[in-house]
Amino acid sequence: MYTFEPDKTVLDKTELTLISQYWNACNYLAAAMIYLQDNPLLDEPLKSEHIKNRLLGHWGASPALSFCYIHMNRLINKYQLDSLFIAGPGHGAPGVLAPVYLEGTYSEYYPEKSETINGLKKFLKEFSFPGFIGSHCTPELPGSIHEGGELGYSLSHAYGAAFDHPDLIVTCVVGDGEAETGPLATAWHSNKFLNPKTDGAVLPILNLNGYKIANPTILARISEEELLNLFKGYGYEPILVEGSEPQVMHQKMAHALEHAVNQIKHIQHQARVEDKNGRAKWPMIILKTPKGWTGPKTVDGHQVENTWRAHQVPLAGVKENPDHLAQLESWLKSYQPETLFNHDGKLIPELQAIAPKGQSRMSANPIANAGIVRQPLKLPDYAQFAAQVDAPGKLKISNTSVLGEYLNQIFMDNPNNFRLFGPDETASNKLDAVYQSTQKTWLADAKPEDSDGANLSVNGRVMEMLSEHTLEGWLEGYLLTGRHGLLHTYEAFAHVIDSMFNQHAKWLDICKHNVEWRAPISSLNILLSSVVWRQDHNGFSHQDPGFIDLVTNKSADVSRIYFPPDANCLLSVAEHCLQSTDYINLIISDKQKHLQYLTIEQAKQHCKKGIDVWDWASHSEALDTQSQSVDVILACCGDIPTMEALAAAAILKEYLPNLKLRFINIVDLYRIQSSDEHPHGLSTSEFEQLFTQDKPIIFNFHGYPWLIHKLAYKHNASARLHVRGYIEKGNINTPLELAIQNKIDRFNLVLDVLNRVPNLEGAADGLKNKMQQAISDHLNHAHTYGMDSDNISNWQWPDTNFEVEVNDK
Amino acid sequence: MYTFEPDKTVLDKTELTLISQYWNACNYLAAAMIYLQDNPLLDEPLKSEHIKNRLLGHWGASPALSFCYIHMNRLINKYQLDSLFIAGPGHGAPGVLAPVYLEGTYSEYYPEKSETINGLKKFLKEFSFPGFIGSHCTPELPGSIHEGGELGYSLSHAYGAAFDHPDLIVTCVVGDGEAETGPLATAWHSNKFLNPKTDGAVLPILNLNGYKIANPTILARISEEELLNLFKGYGYEPILVEGSEPQVMHQKMAHALEHAVNQIKHIQHQARVEDKNGRAKWPMIILKTPKGWTGPKTVDGHQVENTWRAHQVPLAGVKENPDHLAQLESWLKSYQPETLFNHDGKLIPELQAIAPKGQSRMSANPIANAGIVRQPLKLPDYAQFAAQVDAPGKLKISNTSVLGEYLNQIFMDNPNNFRLFGPDETASNKLDAVYQSTQKTWLADAKPEDSDGANLSVNGRVMEMLSEHTLEGWLEGYLLTGRHGLLHTYEAFAHVIDSMFNQHAKWLDICKHNVEWRAPISSLNILLSSVVWRQDHNGFSHQDPGFIDLVTNKSADVSRIYFPPDANCLLSVAEHCLQSTDYINLIISDKQKHLQYLTIEQAKQHCKKGIDVWDWASHSEALDTQSQSVDVILACCGDIPTMEALAAAAILKEYLPNLKLRFINIVDLYRIQSSDEHPHGLSTSEFEQLFTQDKPIIFNFHGYPWLIHKLAYKHNASARLHVRGYIEKGNINTPLELAIQNKIDRFNLVLDVLNRVPNLEGAADGLKNKMQQAISDHLNHAHTYGMDSDNISNWQWPDTNFEVEVNDK
């Protein structure tokens, strides 16, 4: 085994020269792309007109990024490694763009940025230029699966990419700014979930360049003892590489990286060949280098290199300031571009030779354009898990427990490219049927009592950690490298990952519209269970359906939202989502027991339509969508609102048998939008067929009611659209009490109908009184009897039995 | 100085007996409140009817919480400490409710839950009961400033409370589940921001009870060496207290806590008396105890104590299962309640005697009901910082830089109860005028080069860490303990704290409506700068105005949103927000230079109204709000949309001088809602006075356009309301290019007007062509010339000079 001796020399003179030169070429390009719009190789003296009109980009992080990149290249060649590169400080894109261009990949994807003097000029000019090359590791960058625009997720993405890719080493540079974020600070614990036998490895390189935009970083300003303790505490073997003199640092880094790669191989050998599997003390490198390394040391009397002043553009006003222009020229010339590139703009052959070739280049690793290697999920026929529904509203089961059985079969049929992610709630969310075929990944210590139902295993495929950030990051990394998955979480706490969700949606949107070479990847599937309406004793803090609103702000081309009303619809929706690509699919389905309505065949049809009239819950004369012979439309979206709406329909049927009520259920929320705005939307004529042109619509919604107005506004029905939903009224409540407080309950819905349909006076008054009495009865009862009062058989709205009523249809 | 010897005995026999008994009383109550609705002291044999109908609550975390609480009580008495208690595992509320009740505070706040047998019965029964006592440390709980419903924020709240409270020790129990979250994992680094001289102390107690809902915890399943290294790495002195035998554990904990408190006093002495101030190695305790400690060891053959099965209700189905009922009775009796309480239900006097009294009780610390101790912020007259506006649209300055001067004066006038929070961007957001009077808090290592402009100091009052979670947590803790502050951040990345924001909004809402004894606290003020419209090279990933949408989902009683169009309006809004209480004030104001429109007096009036017609930008015949003599309303909200709308108005004025355009600017977003829905909303008649009854409204908005439809839907204007805003179109763009892509720019606004106002045909066609030409000219220009093209003096819409046009009014 390769051992680590801090001062060992591992590069011979030729290797050292070549890697130094290659790094110079990277740094030259990184600086040049911030400044130059012409004279790309300084063939002529640098003049003001060669400088871009506005200087944008981040120099500070760039040199260390390319330093890591090219040192990994050396080992890729030496050991035939399969590696991906993740740049946590993705805003230091010049440090990644440079080696990606130099190894030829960039020109292969973008032939107009060829390896010629004109191609190079275009490449430099278009960096951070309107409409062109982004200044982060955006989706347009070959090899990138992580933009690094928003900080915090590099390490969880890296682990997600490594799961089930046993041959992969994910080289993940973490910036010391990013390291201060919460998501990154806990992602280090991902090493307790990585199986050395069946997963690949993550090689984290923490780059302590010491500064953020305007401040030092915390980790660069603690003692070396604290620093090493911290990473030992996280369970790693930290290897410190510190310095600034390039020749020395190349030796140190080559040595450290070689040690790390050998450690990884040793760990994997033990697990795979010697059959000693378990949690390993994986290596990680702490690379302590100056911010803006090799850039201007001082500018206008201020230290720049190794301070926050090097974060973005170290020399400002170059176009106007001749001193700065001269300093820039001498800085750029310090890399001796004339020795690195031929006159035609191409890297000299000796340097080209040291980069990996073909798919061994991290920028050309097919895993980073995962759609081309992705295997579709093998999906069993979900009908075999269907709830047996003889009549609507009779059977009461947990919808998610049915989904659990389906997922269990998916685990059996897809042993190494599907995972389930959740923060400690797979059992609580009633998906525990999956434990028939798999377990929870766990490589931290085991205890004897684990054998009694803890379902832990080094080989588990259910990922549970109490960090929504880490789970979401793992899942994104897993999907972005060609696999499949589902994340389930509390509805209210989906907001924890709002920002990550936004970033992934934006990534997909860009890929879909701007990056034609990116093949589609599996959709990001999020199941919200433990919903707003069933928080019981958890109360107000756990009641928040606003994640739905967030999703509706993202591009219509990537976002989908489903509200299956029962188990069979949930199965149909799940199948649809799991086989789709390039979407974000949000599914909202409560974990508690609910009434079932549709047979599997009906469910399939209903979900296909996404919105439909339920004839058995409507008045027979209100069914014809070509006719306007309707008194009122009762629409609903969401499992609990649907149950309440059906109960209201049953009450109305009993008391006002002549009321022409049309009952509409919505599975696919975007159906209510205009077809101008969303591909699933309804045209005006479709909308009016369903909702008539002028009749009142009572809409019972799972989420915030105003969202429906927002989505439907182009249909110009707002004056007759009366939406009920969660209006931030709650505490410790029984389910029905909470429904009543927010007026999505059966009694208030009846009142809504009575208040909206004209000419009902006689019949309406008595029923209104009954409804008000029922509401006050229930509230009194709940406060006397307690949490279970909804389920007490002897408490009931006296003249209504919802189940019987609906079954009678 | 007190030294730590692991096996030292510190409690004498009497003390040990009393503290053991007190803890028994806590545990008895904690268990009883989950189970009993009657027979509160087991005066008669336990029967099924004494058991609640539904068993809800979290037993698992409770015993260790009260264990920490009462051991802290001992030291409060011994050393006259001033302490707050924060329960990270706030769902273990029984472990906090119990000592709060036993020390009398609960009954003082809720006299119906008196210290009598009937009061006790009510207290137990109402726990987790519909409409009554929450099962977390909700706002209704005296002494709580942290609900602990959503996990992750206990430690940042604790530090926020400790800042500028030099005598306070915040006892903060962190659960090992919560410790897995990102926000908690990075909050440990808060110790680099705590000044031993002028701040109080935080004493973190990490309770490793080993389990979450259904899983072991990571930190309980790593080696002791890793565990201690981790906390040494975080910069603490970890003290491990491990075991399960209560008598031994009382000794160990008493000793450890005494050591910790003495260490704190020693550190503070060094800083305050010996004048050796700097970062300290603060103590923290790792308390390793069984989950569900002292509860049932096994149930139905499964181990319960010290496993995840103890998380919530360890014995289920007690009402129906006689064996479980018997086991419950014997468990409850194991605490010997008859020896702890008198027959009348009151704790025996010997035990009462050992609790702190009056305001020394952590539950009665006035700091935890901070409104009663809060001093209003001393606010200087903002007029002295006003931008000198001679005419609208002439002066161009950064609005936030003007705010910076005002904040600087606030720092001078309020030396110890105001702080500014931001993730490394105070300078970038142009608020750096504050460095005239203060600096950034920094207790990590210093370097010589810091003296050149880094603005770091142990005494700084500007809090910068690259963790929005930590900043928001600090600020919340700071406000909840009676002080004032402002958080500023990137608009897109405000989503990082969506969930924290939700929780704080819910806390305020509950306090306002349900907890009359809580006095108002300072509002949470959030300034979003670096807005969606000015991301330039940061591109698509940094473009997201959705935080505004999130805020609009919270209660109208607590949420406020302001869009000051210029510097003077920003000053007025800032003053208003900084003196308000119990709101969340969201202010959106870009950091770049912008045109100025209003004098300080005009700004004051405009902000007071929140929405107004700008007569100088309107057609003179369209001003009379009693008349409907208007062709079109051009409304705008947000600094950049306002500038574009004004430019559009100028173009229209030049080309269609007879067009009766009414120009409306909105500062207070909620003005456009209905007065039925928000206290700032407009009545129908007010809305129609401003917006007429039937004329087209072109609304140029900063955020997502459909939000305006959502807010305004009750005004039934959606058919004539045409909203422009951000529609997720962007990349690397010049500001004007981005505006054009999303159609909020001057040219598209003119087109919108031309397309909406009837009977313009002749004049309109030529102008339409000009606008389309201008759009295409600009896009071409940007892609040729680059990022700076918006500012090039020789590129301009040929016949329009916005400044002149507006000035000419």
TrEMBL record, chains A, B:
It holds the Pfam family XFP. InterPro entries: Phosphoketolase, THDP-binding, Transketo_C/PFOR_II, Xul5P/Fru6P_PKetolase, Xul5P/Fru6P_PKetolase_C, Xul5P/Fru6P_PKetolase_CS, Xul5P/Fru6P_PKetolase_N, Xul5P/Fru6P_PKetolase_ThDP_BS. The keyword Lyase applies. Residues 12-372 form the Xylulose 5-phosphate/Fructose 6-phosphate phosphoketolase N-terminal domain. Its cofactor is thiamine diphosphate. Residues 591-797 form the Xylulose 5-phosphate/Fructose 6-phosphate phosphoketolase C-terminal domain. Its EC number is 4.1.2.-. SUPFAM superfamilies: Thiamin diphosphate-binding fold (THDP-binding) (SSF52518). PANTHER family: PHOSPHOKETOLASE-RELATED (PTHR31273). Belongs to the XFP family. This is Probable phosphoketolase. It comes from Catenovulum adriaticum.
